[in-house]
Specification:
- The protein is an alpha+beta fold.
- Helix 8 packs across helix 9 and helix 12 packs across helix 13.
Length: 502
């Protein structure tokens, strides 16, 4: 439904009266529209041997798993994908270095082929994308034609829905130096279509392999790769949906992930590098795809990630100043070493929510509360097979606030350096305001409280040391003072070096 959205909106589960045992296995793969040709997908398929894999993993007898001989993997250009012989070390949750790309940034309109997305202020699919938004609408040339699922009564055919045509919009006008620097950084570092292609290809192949163990499962690409706030260096986040019911994250999810880890360590070891099971509140398997050189985090049934991906994607595209501002803040936080939840600082998700909250709380808001204005579209209890439809109903938000990107960036740092009450307030984009901290155990003795808009948990719970909290506050204060006085992005973030690193 969104440009290059990997068809995340495909209903993972039908209503109970339409469910049957082989629903997942019969769905066609959710390859994104117009990204790769059918022949390119076929050429790029991994050469995995799958005989007896499910029995071996479930029985624990890994000796029966057949050996895998490395095969050259090709992407669309016909060149072999890089398969590194040396292991790559993981540093927390962040990627290592990015390959250098020549600095060739040009001012782009959002319909440029080099941009990740063709839409900014209109969160509806173009006529071309409508062909592939739902299984069972119009067959895609990327799909095998042997099966088209019958979803009648679950999701109406897209051709029957009445949507306004998408409106072409441009980047915000930048007349001052600071705003121009923000735009320059955004255009250079925003996620490109080729970056998304790599992640989607890995997701497609892994889904096929995991379905040999869990036939009814589906693997979804979520998070920054799809919510509109991805960069060229963004990791890939994957959600493995095993069943409709919730999964106990401490027991069942860990067991499922241990089986996935075994699969990665044995059968797929020539393609997946150093899979690690991280026993966090929401456990994940962290791994690196040797072909795409992208790092991934894979969780089980953390379906709130599917919901918030669509919510954030809608925020990203209803106002054209949102994405550039968020990207610069993420790059700034990474440069100052305060963007790594595994090391006790802020996650990228928390940073995005902090930017959205700031834009909601201005005297003349730049963003509304989508959950207040469209409660039925973004209900936390909405069935998953309907979640994908919600953003199509949200029109662009026309704010009377004409602040430049530069002014907004300075104001962002000032808000958190001097105005927000960390001790007594909680950040809430659901309410579009700072609200008093709850009394629950989730919020006690926490230095930063950022409400997850669907499940109400604290997305900033990783900041549990006063020393790290003080460092975060100090960076906000120093950055505000420097930017206020110099109005030059380089005084808080080296623009050229950041662009080269991406």
């Amino acid at each position: 439904m969104f440009p290059n959205s990997s068809n995340l909106g495909r209903p993972p589960f039908l209503p109970k009266h339409q469910q049957h045992n082989n629903f997942f296995s019969e769905l066609p793969l959710n390859i994104p529209p117009t990204l790769l040709s059918h022949q390119q997908i076929v050429d790029a398929r991994f050469n995995f041997q799958n005989a007896a894999l499910s029995r071996a993993l479930l029985s624990g007898n890994l000796s029966t798993i057949p050996a895998v001989s490395p095969q050259p993997l090709t992407y669309g250009n016909g060149s072999s994908g890089p398969i590194s012989a040396a292991p790559t070390l993981f540093r927390g949750r962040k990627r290592l270095s990015e390959q250098n790309v020549p600095y060739d940034v040009k001012r782009q309109r959002f319909h440029s082929p080099h941009c990740e997305s063709t839409l900014v202020n209109q969160t509806v699919p173009s006529s071309e994308e409508r062909r592939y938004s739902f299984p069972g609408s119009i067959p895609s040339p990327l799909f095998h034609a042997h099966y088209i699922p019958d979803l009648t009564g679950c999701v109406p055919p897209l051709r029957d829905a009445q949507f306004p045509d998408p409106i072409e919009t441009t980047l915000p006008v930048a007349k001052d130096k600071l705003s121009q620097q923000v735009l320059e950084l955004f255009q250079a570092c925003q996620q490109q279509t080729c970056d998304l292609n790599k992640k989607e290809l890995c997701r497609t192949e892994l889904q096929k392999e995991i379905q040999r163990i869990f036939p009814q499962s589906r693997l979804f690409l979520v998070g920054s790769s799809l919510n509109g706030f991805g960069t060229r260096s963004s990791d890939g986040d994957l959600c493995l949906v095993i069943k409709e019911e919730p999964v106990n994250q401490k027991t069942e999810a860990r067991h499922i992930l241990s089986l996935v880890q075994k699969l990665f360590c044995t059968k797929l070891s020539n393609y997946i590098e150093r899979p690690q099971l991280i026993r966090a509140k929401v456990p994940i398997v962290k791994f690196r795809d040797k072909v795409s050189c992208v790092e991934f985090d894979l969780n089980v049934n953390n379906v709130v990630g599917i919901r918030n991906t669509f919510l954030l994607r809608t925020y990203a595209y209803i106002e054209n100043r949102v994405r550039p501002l968020v990207l610069v803040v993420k790059k700034w936080a990474s440069f100052h070493d305060i963007n790594d939840a595994s090391r006790g600082t802020l996650s990228s998700y928390s940073l995005v929510l902090m930017v959205l909250h700031y834009l909601q709380t201005l005297p003349e808001p730049i963003l509304p509360s989508l959950q207040k204005n469209y409660p039925e579209s973004f209900s936390p209890t909405m069935q998953l097979h309907l979640v994908h439809q919600a953003p199509r109903t949200v029109p662009p938000y026309l704010s009377k606030n004409g602040s430049t990107l530069g002014d907004l960036l300075v104001g962002f740092f000032k808000y958190y350096a001097t105005e927000f009450d960390w001790s007594h307030q909680m950040i809430s984009i659901r309410e579009a305001r700072a609200i008093p901290r709850p009394d629950g155990i989730e919020w006690r003795n926490k230095f930063i409280c950022v409400e997850e808009p669907f499940d109400g948990t604290n997305t900033a719970r990783a900041v549990h040391e006063k020393q790290k909290f003080d460092i975060i506050k100090d960076e906000f204060l120093k950055s505000w003072q420097r930017l206020r006085d110099k109005r030059d992005l380089n005084c808080i973030l080296p623009v050229r070096a950041t662009i080269q690193k991406r």
